[in-house]
Specification:
A hairpin with a 2-residue loop joins strand 1 (2-8) and strand 2 (11-17). By secondary structure, this protein is α/β, with parallel strands linked by helices. The strands form three sheets. Strands 1, 2, 3, 4, 5, 6 and 7 form a seven-stranded mixed β-sheet that branches. The protein has a three-stranded mixed β-sheet with strand order 9-8-12. The chain is globular and about 50 Å long. It has one domain (2-155, 184-241): 2-enoyl-CoA Hydratase, Chain A, domain 1 (Alpha-Beta Complex). The chain contains ten helices and twelve strands. Helix content is 40%, strand content 25%.
């Protein structure tokens, strides 16, 4: 077996290459950023039959979408472990061969479509950042459509976490975007996940015990606490994500994010 690793910023991407029948594995742990996914996407596009093992709470929308598209296009098997949240869920969904290791938390919250709508509201529909957000939302929808997973799972997750306020502004040519909700993440039961199109083998090791999820959330500061659990697929109202949200103040965001 040949092993090599490359470290970028605060995370390390390691690859274990074997000459036997097993697929060489790309191991990714940490935020999904444009810089950090470049070598991963390059490896996937090299044509070698890689698999991806990932633990992440999400990251940059462009990086997440690009990685998910590569995974889907090259039919890369994806294994999640410990935690897969936010944008990581899209990478998992994109894979035609999904696997979760025992005791893995699969956590959802806001979607690309919701981000795009918020940016459009706060910055104007023709703002470059809002247009970028809309383009990413379309790519996200395309990934979901090709995966067999109902895009409604993200719409439902947005409504369940109950967004309270959001803010988007450009300062010194850098987009400042943040929001506050009553819940940080939401987790669905096996039954609910299957109703959105997941197969039993995809999710058999996902945490489905609310008390276990609560303990994990309370002991993991990076989750921010306040994780909801939904036993059955929700039957939500016809309310849409286009409902205008009031602006968060920076002070409000910081105070609420420390709950």
């Amino acid at each position: 077996m040949t092993k090599f690793s490359s470290c970028f910023s605060a995370i390390c991407i390691s690859m274990a290459l074997t000459s036997c029948a097993h697929r060489p594995e790309i191991r990714y742990s940490g935020p999904i950023t444009e810089q950090d996914v470049k070598p991963v996407i390059a490896a996937i596009k090299s044509g070698n039959p890689y698999s991806l093992r990932i633990r992440s709470l999400g990251g940059d929308g462009e990086a997440v979408t690009a990685l998910a598209e590569a995974v889907q296009a090259f039919r890369i098997p994806v294994t999640i472990h410990n935690e897969c949240a936010s944008g990581c869920t899209l990478v998992y969904i994109a894979s035609p061969k999904r696997k979760a290791e025992p005791g893995t938390a699969l956590l959802f919250h806001w979607s690309g479509a919701f981000h795009a709508e918020t940016l459009s509201q706060k910055l104007g529909a023709q703002n470059p950042e809002a247009l970028k957000g809309s383009a990413l939302a379309k790519r996200e929808l395309s990934i979901l459509s090709a995966s067999g997973i109902d895009p409604q799972i993200y719409t439902d997750a947005v409504e369940i976490v109950r967004p309270l306020c959001a803010s988007a502004q450009i300062s010194n040519e850098e987009l400042q975007y943040f929001g506050v909700s009553e819940l940080n993440f939401v987790s669905f039961s096996h039954e609910a996940l299957q109703s959105y199109g997941f197969k039993e083998k995809d999710i058999r090791n996902i945490i489905t015990d609310p008390s276990t999820l609560k303990i994990r959330a309370e002991s993991n500061n990076s989750w921010g606490g306040l994780v909801g659990f939904v036993p059955n697929r929700p039957k939500l109202s016809a309310k849409t994500n286009s409902t205008a949200l009031r602006d968060c103040t920076r002070e409000e965001f910081l105070a609420l994010s420390r709950r």
